[in-house]
Amino acid sequence: xxxxxxxxxxxxxxxxxxxxxxxxxxxxxxxxxxxxxxxxxxxxxxxxxxxxxxxxxxxxxxxxxxxxxxxxxxxxxxxxxxxxxxxx
Length: 88
Description:
Helix content is 43%, strand content 16%. The protein is α+β, with helices and mostly antiparallel strands. It has a two-stranded parallel ribbon. The longest helix has 13 residues, at 4-16. The protein is globular, with a radius of gyration of 13 Å.
């Protein structure tokens, strides 16, 4: 998760606003296979009303693209938040 800190900050903001937020697993590759992570993330998407894609510096990774496709297939609402990172 390239922008885990930004995702966590946004999740906290949405939680304060009253939303139930499910984040992807941070450092999941240390604990799970790629297949297991995909299953976990798809189950989270399947049980959600919507997904929020953090598009930081115009970057959306391949895993995120697959999750977007799954969310579209599952009829989920997809929100995009575009930001610039604080990194130089």
